[in-house]
Specification:
The protein is built from 2 helices and 12 strands, in the order E-E-E-E-E-E-E-E-E-E-E-H-E-H.
């Protein structure tokens, strides 16, 4: 059976140019079991090559998660913003400047979130994440082209992870799309699901 390929994005979508996918890439986001620092993840390509590391903070009101590249450089943080009706997350650069905002909204069937940010080329981006978050599956669409640019799926992974209470996601990213920002969206989805 051939691997599923996503269409190349009509233009580059993202902020971190060095992490723009050049082909359809499947990332594996695996939560560390019994991490003493809270929700921490290892993010690797399907080949096993690590690309990002996420460190969560225990007992943090904001649930701050810091994302690092493999050289240990702090790329961005994911922070829950509190004064909103619907769950809202901010992706901030190391200086605390908001790069992306992710707002959840309720749908009768399934879930929806909208992410807004400015791409590295200056384009104002609006992405929509739709799916069944209770099954931990969602498609991420570029609203301007209605193209699926990423797909999150946990069902294809083993039940062993569930037994140990850790989450593992497969995140498929289209060519021309920022893998780091798509990973951030996946982590926001995980955070929202953990609020139940």
């Amino acid at each position: 059976m051939a691997a599923v390929q996503l269409q190349t994005a009509p233009r580059q979508v993202g902020v971190f140019k060095n992490l723009i996918a050049t082909q359809t890439e499947t990332l594996v986001l695996k939560e560390k079991v019994m991490s003493l620092t809270g929700d921490s993840f290892d993010i690797k390509l399907a080949s096993g090559q690590p690309i990002l590391k996420v460190e969560g903070k225990v007992m943090s009101i904001s649930g701050r998660k810091k994302v690092f590249d493999m050289q240990g450089n702090h790329m961005f943080s994911i922070v829950k913003e509190h004064m909103h009706i619907h769950a809202t997350y901010a992706v901030e650069d190391p200086q605390g400047v908001k790069i992306m905002e992710v707002k959840n909204s309720f749908k009768l069937m399934g879930s929806k979130a909208t992410a807004t940010f400015t791409s590295s080329d200056g384009t104002e981006e609006v992405l929509e994440m739709k799916g069944n978050w209770f099954d931990y599956a969602a498609d991420i669409f570029d609203k301007s082209t209605n193209t699926v640019i990423a797909r999150i799926d946990r069902k294809i992974l083993s039940g062993r992870d569930m037994m140990f209470g850790q989450q593992t996601y497969a995140l498929m990213v289209a060519p021309g799309v920022d893998m780091a920002l798509m990973a951030a969206l996946c982590i926001c989805m995980d955070e929202k699901n953990n609020e139940k």
